[in-house]
Amino acid sequence: MEVEAVVNASTVRSWLEGAAASVREQRDYLTQLDAAIGDADHGTNMDRGFTAVVEKLESLEELPPGKVLTTAGSTLVSTVGGASGPLWGTALRRAGRSLGDAESFDGADLLAALEAALEGVVELGAAQEGDKTMPRTGCGPRSRCRRPRGAPRISGSAASAIRIRARPRRR
């Protein structure tokens, strides 16, 4: 029997908390990367933003997953400087709006949310496919984001093990 993975607000909050922990862990590395091409504040800014996201979500009552994402996105826009706050904030807000007020979502809804997030980033940044931008690093051509026909679905236990992690690139 095939089981479709369903994600709820608690899982989305865990993903955001995991992202915050990874950003904090990699803060210096992110700043070092930014120093080579920018003003060496990316790690600090993203850490500040994701810390604010976690604090904001802790202060709120239960929200559906889409509202969790829109709240996180709005928080990033208001706390992260430079282009990163608006880009990541737009991505999360668009994903959240795509999910609406539903109490949970499945893989098809997640794909639609990711596509909405990508569209928001492309619109905001005026990115073109092939540019060295967030959309390119996110999933390249959009067709690669889709689950191939006949590919197995993620089981409930595997889906619960998914974690967002920032990994430093090995040289």
Characterise this structure.
With 171 residues, the chain is mostly helical. It has a single domain (7-145), classed as Alpha Horseshoe (Serine Threonine Protein Phosphatase 5, Tetratricopeptide repeat), CATH 1.25.40. The protein is 62% helix and 2% strand. The protein contains eight helices and two strands. The longest helix is centred in the last third of the chain and has 19 residues, at 107-125. Residues 140-144 and 147-171 have low confidence and may be disordered.
- Indicate the CATH class: Mainly Alpha
Helical content band = 55-70%
Dominant shape:
globular
Oligomeric composition of the shown chains: single chain
- Radius of gyration, CA atoms, in whole angstroms: 16 Å
Short account of what is shown:
This protein has helices at residues 9-25, 27-37, 42-58, 65-79, 84-99, 107-125, 134-139, 156-160, and strands at residues 7-8, 104-105. The chain has 171 residues and is mainly alpha-helical. A two-stranded antiparallel sheet has the order 1-2.
Descriptive key words:
171 residues, two-stranded antiparallel sheet, globular, mainly alpha, 2 strands, disordered C terminus, Serine Threonine Protein Phosphatase 5, Tetratricopeptide repeat
Sequence-ordered SSE layout with sheet pairings:
Blueprint: E1 7-8, H1 9-25, H2 27-37, H3 42-58, H4 65-79, H5 84-99, E2 104-105, H6 107-125, H7 134-139, H8 156-160
Antiparallel strand pairs: 1-2
Helix pairs in contact: 1-3, 1-4, 2-3, 3-4, 4-5, 5-6
